[in-house]
């Protein structure tokens, strides 16, 4: 028998028991005639003692143990003379009578403790050692708990988990596909799914009614920070539903998670239209844990001789709380920050709202006190606040001010990790103009239904058509998104036409879906949550990597197994990819 108990289990109530434990050597210390060893497994750490007076040979054996050796010990549970209140087993220790080495270990390349001396690269190369550390191990356990709660909640509502295929067909819509050559069909390729979208819709045609899947998805995109080429979605679809039904079910799921994981009970989630989110936060995934809402200033700033503002499509500002006391140097630093190429503002105007009710600004030459009072009103600034104003093309300037708002939110400690502020963003535009290809793309995907009342605009002003599409936003992150789908074949054909597909292209790429729609497709809709990010946010962290057992680095590499890698010429030949 390898163990009677785990290394995290024994307590003062177990005194006198003879026990066997197995685990890894975390640490050893010699004190006079005694040797102390900390043995660790997934469940915790227990202290072992070896006393020369009892058994000199055994103690010498213990002194030979290196870090991370795998051992099995048998002994008696005794009370510790110096107790350690920091660990649950801290009141006891094991007086060892037998020690067996199950496996030796090379000296690990970094310390396997909560605070490690190992950098990111080395930890990823030896990820199996990293996983022995509490922060990583606990993140994986936490992820399991979230996934389990998701399964519990959805199963209780009759959702059925179905696996959909990983080897599917490539389509040009959306992101770039990962491609898999087919050996049996030379010259032909599978693609790995970017999401199970069409399959889950076909499951609705199949009458399954409520589907979910915790599923890997693959997107061959240039990796931005904290993106993974393979990631996990909680993918869901329901039949005979309207947007309201879906929002309710998944608001319920999010509430269930927060309650069961953090004991937090939330009120009904606020809702905001896409337009409102863009106007008030410059962003379709606003972090509403803090204010600094946008105040549009065109009406109160474009009547003087300040050409920069007069020529701008949008003049917009935020009030930074209690920042009127910022020094010239601090404001210059913020100005430089917004002028960095990553943000791209051309300049920044400030107004200090002094405690005595007067204003002092960088544009005093152009604007008087009563003008600036109107700016304060529009941005909601109070005495003691600092108004920061950007101007330029509306979309760009909103993105710039949004970046500044988030940066200040971080700097001022307003983005508290233990506070959860969800919100639904609804009424997304159906289409998005793409400068590169000079055509409209589906903002969500081509299966999203437009709002019936906006349909006439499809021919006249397609950019104005709103979709039955929604995102769930949590603390400034999009954690889920979906839509009510088109379930009518003519409507789907019309949508493909608007997206620039010829009828042949539409048939070639999505014929299977439109064919299925000829056989009684029910009204349906759904959404998908990004599990990696959801888990990280619920865990109060910003980076998703530690919640993934074997993540890829920023170049999309797995540095542990060293992938991607070249393959042998014979393999290439067999796949019909050999160089002729
Ligand atoms: N398949 C969509 C996505 O991956 C989600 C959905 O519409 O259900 O974003």
UniProtKB/TrEMBL annotation:
InterPro entries: Aa-tRNA-synt_II (IPR004364), aa-tRNA-synth_II (IPR006195), aa-tRNA-synth_II/BPL/LPL (IPR045864), Asp-tRNA-ligase_1 (IPR004524), Asp-tRNA-ligase_1_N (IPR047089), Asp/Asn-tRNA-synth_IIb (IPR002312), AspRS_core (IPR047090), GAD-like_sf (IPR004115)
Alphabetical list of Gene3D superfamilies matching this protein: Bira Bifunctional Protein, Domain 2 (3.30.930.10), GAD-like domain (3.30.1360.30), Nucleic acid-binding proteins (2.40.50.140)
GO molecular function (one): aspartate-tRNA ligase activity
Pfam families: GAD, tRNA-synt_2, tRNA_anti-codon
Localisation: Cytoplasm
EC number, UniProt record: 6.1.1.12
Keywords, comma-separated and alphabetical: Aminoacyl-tRNA synthetase, ATP-binding, Cytoplasm, Ligase, Nucleotide-binding, Protein biosynthesis
Domain of life per record: Bacteria
Domain spans labelled Aminoacyl-transfer RNA synthetases class-II family profile: 143-551
Principal cellular location given in the protein's record: cytoplasm
Role according to the record: Catalyzes the attachment of L-aspartate to tRNA(Asp) in a two-step reaction: L-aspartate is first activated by ATP to form Asp-AMP and then transferred to the acceptor end of tRNA(Asp).
Name of the featured protein: Aspartate--tRNA ligase
Gene expressing this chain: aspS
């Amino acid at each position: 028998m390898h163990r009677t108990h785990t290394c995290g289990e024994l307590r003062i109530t177990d005194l006198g028991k003879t026990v066997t434990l197995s685990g890894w050597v975390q640490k050893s210390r010699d004190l006079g005639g005694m040797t102390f060893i900390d043995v660790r497994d997934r469940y915790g750490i227990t202290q072992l003692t070896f006393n020369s007076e009892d058994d000199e040979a055994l103690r010498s054996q213990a002194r030979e143990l290196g870090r991370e050796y795998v051992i099995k010990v048998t002994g008696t549970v005794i009370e510790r003379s110096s107790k350690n209140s920091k660990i649950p087993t801290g009141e006891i220790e094991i007086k060892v009578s037998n020690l067996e080495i199950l496996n030796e270990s090379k000296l690990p390349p970094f310390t396997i403790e909560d605070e490690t001396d190992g950098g990111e690269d080395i930890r990823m190369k030896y990820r199996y050692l990293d996983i022995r550390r509490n922060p990583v191990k606990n993140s994986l356990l936490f992820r399991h708990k979230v996934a389990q709660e998701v399964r519990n909640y959805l199963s209780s509502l009759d959702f059925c988990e179905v696996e959909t295929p990983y080897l599917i067909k490539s389509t040009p819509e959306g992101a770039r596909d990962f491609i898999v050559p087919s050996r049996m069909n030379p010259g032909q390729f599978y693609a790995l799914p970017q999401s199970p979208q069409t399959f889950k819709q076909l499951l609705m045609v199949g009458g399954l009614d409520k589907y979910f899947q915790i599923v890997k998805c693959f997107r061959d995109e240039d990796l931005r920070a904290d993106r993974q080429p393979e990631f996990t979605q909680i993918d869901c679809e329901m039949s005979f539903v309207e947007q309201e039904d879906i929002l309710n079910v998944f608001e319920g799921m999010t509430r269930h998670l927060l309650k069961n994981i953090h004991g937090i009970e939330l009120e009904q989630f606020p809702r905001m239209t896409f337009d409102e989110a863009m106007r008030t936060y410059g962003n379709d995934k606003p972090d509403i844990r803090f204010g600094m809402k946008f105040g549009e200033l065109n009406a109160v700033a474009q009547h003087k001789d300040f050409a920069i503002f007069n020529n701008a499509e949008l003049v917009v500002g935020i009030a930074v709380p209690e920042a009127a006391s910022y020094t010239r140097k601090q404001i210059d630093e913020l100005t430089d920050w917004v002028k960095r190429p990553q943000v791209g503002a051309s300049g920044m105007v400030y107004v200090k709202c002094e405690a005595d009710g007067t204003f002092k600004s960088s544009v005093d030459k152009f604007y008087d006190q009563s003008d600036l009072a109107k700016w304060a009103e529009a941005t909601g600034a109070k005495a003691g606040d600092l108004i920061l104003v950007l101007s330029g093309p509306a979309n760009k300037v909103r993105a710039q001010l949004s970046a500044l708002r988030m940066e200040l939110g971080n700097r001022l400690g307003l983005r508290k990790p233990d506070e959860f502020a969800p919100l639904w963003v609804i009424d997304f535009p159906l289409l998005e103009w793409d400068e590169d290809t000079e055509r409209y793309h589906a903002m969500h995907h081509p299966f999203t239904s437009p709002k019936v009342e906006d349909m006439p605009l499809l021919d006249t002003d397609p950019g104005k058509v709103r979709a039955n599409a929604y995102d769930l936003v949590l603390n400034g992150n999009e954690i889920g998104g979906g839509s009510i789908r088109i379930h009518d074949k003519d409507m789907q054909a019309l949508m493909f036409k608007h997206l620039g597909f010829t009828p042949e292209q539409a048939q070639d790429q999505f014929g299977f879906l439109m064919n299925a729609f000829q056989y009684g497709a029910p009204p349906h809709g759904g959404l998908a949550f990004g599990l990696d990010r959801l888990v990280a946010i619920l865990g109060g962290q910003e980076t998703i990597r530690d919640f993934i057992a074997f993540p890829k680095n920023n170049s999309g590499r797995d540095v542990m197994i060293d992938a991607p890698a070249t393959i042998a010429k014979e393999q290439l030949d067999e796949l019909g990819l050999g160089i002729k």
